[in-house]
């Protein structure tokens, strides 16, 4: 029943309140101009909710001209996307606003993204954007518009568990599109005010709905993961951004060395490398080399064999607990260490600080990458997550 | 829901008399004003009648007025045209609180090798003529200062600046887009050598403006392809729009707002809402404009909250996607970025009433209370 907004049981007051009475307060829908959020807005309007559409202007795509070209794909916040979102809002007959979060996005997403790479880690900007922009700043703006709830096009589900008195986050039923990996930072107050109407739908169902509701964006291509990096070329983005802001790192070249200490090449900056990377090393060898680690202080890139990438355990820091209050002693879970990773069974071990957890895999995993998120699952339920140290 | 309009500095509704003039022209006068025949002559007559109306309104000869597509084009023709007609080295003086339609062409001139000085202003939002004199150089070829600021309403001392310019034999361009229709304008008394105006700020349609160019001013072409408007603005004239501008000019003369409604709004806000203050000088302003800062309020959130209550106001200037960016004018008068972001511009017009102002004040009180309660950070 893709038509119904399924929200499970929630405390009274929200749209899910089971009284059969529509609330008069509007729901603010984050509209990117893409098919998913357009369907969200259309579904809510169809179900009789009072909707206010808002597009977050996060990044000026014309700001770094050397990255701009007509063939760049998967970029958000373009004038075309705003045009599309506005057209959908007009078709639905709902108020629509473009809100400018460029300053906050740069401070809280782009700068940390750049700093993480320079520190030899591999960041996840989408998680930061969700934590600090979409489910923080946007919620505030929704408040300003008198909206108690926000809705987005994420593929994930939220339900209220009366036994534990906690809002739970669950994977979207379309596991291929599931976005919970990027949502592990959501707090209970944020979850309480958020609707994910697409969580019970598959992407093909969403496209079909878009078509059946005559939305002008029904056949629009999906966006890529990192919206502000054209063509996924993060190294080119880094170079352009560092040049524009004048914060070039002191040293941007160094040696490529093997795990046993042999120098096998040189490079133009550790921020150009990601743990697990094989291509683009510029090193000729009998067997393929993989990046095992990067060290910004010495500008050394350590390479080794595929087996050298295997890790059995790691520490997750700044853990946010969602469906459970925390871990005492130990807990079994499936742990996902990057977006495309198949969750691997592991034991979570409590440490002396509640927001630090040791993760011990049942069998070692390839490329446990510092800076990436580690999300803990129990089946479809997101227990919580943190950052790989 | 009823919607009330308090954003007349962005644009104005077309006046009924203007609408009548435009639509009758659109319906009946379709000739090309450059054509020799009867139809062309009819159009030409309307065009020249409108030119007389607008030139009379600003105090120049009809031959000194060229019609443009709007204020932005007029400013481009003036700034680029004067500077490009001069020989290098070249230097241009403007101010930090100009509209992007002046700052943009000046930035383009910079790329072409022209030096540009942007005179700073104090918290009053008024250019000090002494600063303009100070900025003069032997190679200065143009001074461009706005008559009234679009965000603050502050009126600049144009006559004094004109005396300085003329003593140094430098042409003065004045962006008068926000002054025309709000205060009496006489380009000769002001001493302006070029003066830009825009129809839709005084109840004419969008897409029509004009530039006064004093006889004898050298102007290089900016666009090419026809001999219209004395070679200064090639392209078939928008006769219905121009006719509307003429009608609007005739209506506006002798029909200036006094500041009573604006003062009513300002006094009520300052009295009833704590943590508020007026940005810029309150002394010499266009009578319809006030720019008010609200402590601990995000202007963007406030514009949305007020719009959903049926009141149209604005923060700074809107960018092409419709998103709101911090105002360069407010930061130029010394406001911190946070204070600039917590400021709202109210610009009134002929349709506003005391009752509307009172309702706006009530909506403001409610919105401010709500926004401060949920602490949307400015």
| Assembly category | heterodimer
CATH fold assignment of the largest domain in chain A:
Rossmann fold
Main sheet makeup of chain B: 7 strands, mixed
Strand content of chain B: 5-15%
Q: How many domains of chain B, as an integer?
A: 2
Number of helices of chain B: 13
Are there runs of chain B of 5+ residues with pLDDT below 50, and where? 319-323
Helix content of chain A: 10-25%
How many domains would you count in the coordinates of chain A? 3
Integer-rounded radius of gyration of chain A: 22 Å
**What is the CATH C level class of the largest domain in chain B, in words?**
Alpha Beta
For the record, give the distance between the C-alpha atoms at the N and C termini of chain B, rounded to a whole number: 28 Å
CATH superfamily of the largest domain in chain B: Type I PLP-dependent aspartate aminotransferase-like (Major domain)
Indicate the CATH topology of the largest domain in chain B: Aspartate Aminotransferase, domain 2
The mean pLDDT of chain A is: 87
Straight-line N-to-C gap of chain A: 42 Å
Tell me, what's the shape of chain A? globular
Approximately how much beta-strand content do the residues of chain A carry?
25-35%
| Helical residues, percent of chain B | 25-40%
Structural class of chain B: alpha/beta
Explain what you see.
The complex is a heterodimer of chains A (389) and B (378). Chain A has 389 residues and is α/β, with parallel strands linked by helices. Chain A folds into three domains: 27-232, Rossmann fold; 251-304, Roll (SH3 type barrels), CATH 2.30.30; 310-388, Translation factors (Elongation Factor Tu (Ef-tu), domain 3, Beta Barrel), CATH 2.40.30.10. Helix content of chain A is 23%, strand content 27%. In chain A, strand 2, helix 2 and strand 3 form a beta-alpha-beta unit. Chain B folds into two domains: 16-252, Aspartate Aminotransferase, domain 2, CATH 3.40.640.10; 257-373, Aspartate Aminotransferase, domain 1. In chain B, the strands form three sheets. Chain B has a seven-stranded mixed β-sheet, sandwiched between helices. In chain B, strands 9-10-12 form a three-stranded antiparallel β-sheet. Chain B has a two-stranded parallel sheet with strand order 1-11. In chain B, helix 2 packs parallel to helix 8 (239-252) and helix 10 (299-308) crosses helix 13 (354-373). The two termini of chain B are 28 Å apart. In chain B, 53% of the residues are buried. The chains are: A alpha/beta (389), B alpha/beta (378). Chains A and B meet through helix 2, strand 3 and helix 4 of A and helix 10 of B.
């Amino acid at each position: 029943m893709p038509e119904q907004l399924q929200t499970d049981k929630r405390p009274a007051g929200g749209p899910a309140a089971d009284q059969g009475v529509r609330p008069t307060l509007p729901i603010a829908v984050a509209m990117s101009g893409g098919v998913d959020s357009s369907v969200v807005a259309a579904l809510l309007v169809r179900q009789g909710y009072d909707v206010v559409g808002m597009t977050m202007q996060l990044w000026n795509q014309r700001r770094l001209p050397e990255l701009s070209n007509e063939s760049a794909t998967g970029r958000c916040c373009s004038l075309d996307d705003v045009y599309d979102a506005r057209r959908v809002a007009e078709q639905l007959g709902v108020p629509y606003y473009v809100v400018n979060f460029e300053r906050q996005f740069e401070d809280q997403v782009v700068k940390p993204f750049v700093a993480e790479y320079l520190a030899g880690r591999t960041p996840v900007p989408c998680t930061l954007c969700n934590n600090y922009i979409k489910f923080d700043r946007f919620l505030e703006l929704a408040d300003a518009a008198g909206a108690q709830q926000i809705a987005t096009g994420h593929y994930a589900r939220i339900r209220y568990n009366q036994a534990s008195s906690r809002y739970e986050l669950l994977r979207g039923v379309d596991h291929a599109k599931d976005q919970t990996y990027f949502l592990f930072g959501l707090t209970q107050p944020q979850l309480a005010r958020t609707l994910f109407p697409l969580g019970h739908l598959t992407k093909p169902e969403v496209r079909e709905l878009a078509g059946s509701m005559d939305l002008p964006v029904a056949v629009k291509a999906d966006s890529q993961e990192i919206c502000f990096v054209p063509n996924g070329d993060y190294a080119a983005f880094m170079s352009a951004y560092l040049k524009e802001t004048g914060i070039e790192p002191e040293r941007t070249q160094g040696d490529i060395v093997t795990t046993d200490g042999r120098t096998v090449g040189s490079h133009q900056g550790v921020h150009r490398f990601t743990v697990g990377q094989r291509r683009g090393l510029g090193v000729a060898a009998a067997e393929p080399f993989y990046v095992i680690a990067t060290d910004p202080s010495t500008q050394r890139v350590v390479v080794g064999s595929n087996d050298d990438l295997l890790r059995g355990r790691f520490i997750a820091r700044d853990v946010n607990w969602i469906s459970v209050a925390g871990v005492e002693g130990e807990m079994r879970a499936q742990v996902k260490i990057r977006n495309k990773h198949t969750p691997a069974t592991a034991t979570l071990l409590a440490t002396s600080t509640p927001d630090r957890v040791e993760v011990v895999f049942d069998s070692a995993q390839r490329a446990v990458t510092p800076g990436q998120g580690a999300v803990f699952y129990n089946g479809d339920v997101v227990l919580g997550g943190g950052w790989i140290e | 829901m009823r919607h009330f309009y308090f954003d007349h500095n962005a644009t104005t509704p077309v006046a009924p008399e203007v609408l009548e003039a435009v639509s009758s022209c659109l319906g009946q006068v379709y000739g090309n004003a450059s054509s020799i025949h009867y139809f062309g002559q009819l159009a030409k007559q309307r065009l020249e009648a409108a030119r007389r109306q607008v030139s009379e309104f600003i105090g120049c000869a009809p031959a000194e007025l060229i019609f443009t597509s709007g204020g932005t084009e007029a400013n481009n023709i003036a700034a680029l045209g004067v500077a490009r007609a001069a020989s290098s080295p070249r230097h241009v003086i403007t101010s930090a609180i100009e509209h992007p339609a002046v700052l943009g062409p000046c930035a383009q001139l910079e790329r072409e090798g022209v030096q540009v000085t942007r005179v700073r202003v104090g918290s009053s939002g008024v250019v000090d003529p002494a600063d303009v004199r100070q900025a003069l150089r032997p190679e200065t070829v143009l001074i461009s200062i706005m008559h009234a600021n679009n965000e603050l309403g502050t009126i600049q001392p144009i006559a004094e600046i004109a005396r300085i310019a003329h003593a140094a034999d430098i042409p003065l361009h004045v962006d008068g887009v926000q002054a025309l229709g709000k205060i009496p304008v006489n380009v000769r008394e002001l001493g302006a050598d070029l003066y830009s105006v825009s129809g839709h700020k005084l109840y004419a349609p969008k897409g029509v403006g004009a530039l006064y160019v004093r006889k004898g001013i050298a102007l290089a072409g900016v666009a090419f392809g026809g001999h219209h408007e004395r070679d200064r603005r090639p392209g078939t004239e928008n006769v219905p729009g121009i006719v509307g501008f003429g009608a609007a000019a005739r209506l506006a003369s002798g029909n200036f707002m006094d500041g009573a409604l604006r003062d009513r709004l300002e006094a009520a806000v300052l009295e009833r809402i704590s943590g508020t203050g007026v940005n810029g000088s309150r002394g010499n302003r266009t009578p319809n404009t006030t720019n008010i800062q609200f402590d601990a309020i995000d202007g963007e959130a406030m514009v949305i909250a007020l719009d959903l209550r049926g009141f149209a106001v604005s923060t700074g200037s809107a960018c092409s996607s419709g998103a709101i960016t911090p105002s360069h004018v407010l930061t130029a008068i010394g406001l911190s970025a946070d204070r600039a972001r917590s400021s709202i511009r109210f610009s009134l017009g002929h349709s506003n009433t005391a009752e509307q102002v009172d309702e706006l004040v009530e909506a403001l009180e409610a919105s401010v209370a709500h926004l401060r309660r949920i602490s949307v950070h400015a």
